[in-house]
Amino acid sequence: MDKFKLKIVTPERVVLTDEVDQLSVSTTSGQITILPHHLPLISQLAPGEIIVKHQNKEVSLMAVFGGFIEVLPDEVIILADRAEYAADIDEQRAEEARQRAEAALKEEHVDSEQFAMLSATLEKELNRLRVARKYKQKGMHNLQ
Asked: Is residue 10 located within the same domain as residue 80?
């Protein structure tokens, strides 16, 4: 079966470099799935998930928080603002951060800048929780 190279990079590190069978990502236009020989594409990533199917039928699940994806004839490059494996997400810490952000948004004295920052934090933590819970439910692998 054909494969393609996948590289996921954040400002801090290279998260993954591997040959994979399939990739699904959240873009601002919706969820897309990439298979070998996909047409070239550049798109903006939306906060969501990255699902990577490896050659040994194992699946990796990651939370992603924006960035860009470039699909080339035999390679896919993801430049993510932040990406983390679902297994690495501390669910309790994410839940506590979500609760703090929600409580702060309810305060009367929140200016527009604070509101935007708190809304972004809330969205990020909700995404982290959703991906972490999906990981636990499906028993996906954490290949690194």
From this structure: yes
> Which residues constitute the domain of residue 46?
4-86
pLDDT digits (tens, 9 = 90+) for 28-77: 999 999 999 999 999 999 988 898 988 776 778 888 988 999 999 899 99
- Beta carbons within 8 Å of 26's beta carbon, 6+ residues apart: 45, 46, 47, 48, 49, 50, 64
Mean of the per-residue pLDDT values of the chain: 83
What is the spatial distance between Cα 129 and Cα 135, in angstroms, rounded to a whole number? 10
Tell me, yes or no, whether 18 and 75 share the same domain: yes
Side-chain half-sphere of 70: how many Cα atoms within 13 Å? 6
- Are 103 and 21 in contact by the 8 Å Cβ rule? The answer is no
Supply the angle between the helices 112-138 and 91-105 in degrees, to the nearest 10.
Answer: 150
- Do residues 135 and 52 make contact, with C-beta atoms less than 8 angstroms apart? no
143 in any annotated domain: no
